[in-house]
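Could you help me review a protein record that somebody else here produced? This is what I was given.
***
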Amino acid sequence: MTDPQRSLENLANVVDQAAGMAQRAGQGANVPPVAVEGFDGGVRVIAAPPGFIKVELRDPRVLQRGADAVGREIGRAANEALHRLRHSMTTAAPVEPATVAEEFARVSTQGRQAFQQVLDSVMSLQHPSAR
């Protein structure tokens, strides 16, 4: 008989491995956020993987320059931050497609085996006479 708790732990472990693999494939590596300033430090735009943007208004006097100017400067800083982020992600840890495919195949096989263990455990609980 298969232990249901152990079966679920095995499946959870495989899910964690798959999530880690997806994160590595999507981000390449743990790439730090990139910050670009505008208006002499009055505005700061931070880009983080996989493409999130945060805008910090560091000096409220920047708003006196008008909405159009502020919008253009935030756009410029955001585009520059994303450009730098993409560059750092590609140079930090290139992802080898063959390696990703091998890792995916391994995790997929483990996942099928772990899921089968869970199914076997559930079936043995439903049919106690089969023990």
In short: The chain has three helices and three strands. The chain has a mean pLDDT of 76. Helices lie at 4-27, 67-92, 97-126. The beta strands are 34-38, 43-48, 52-57.
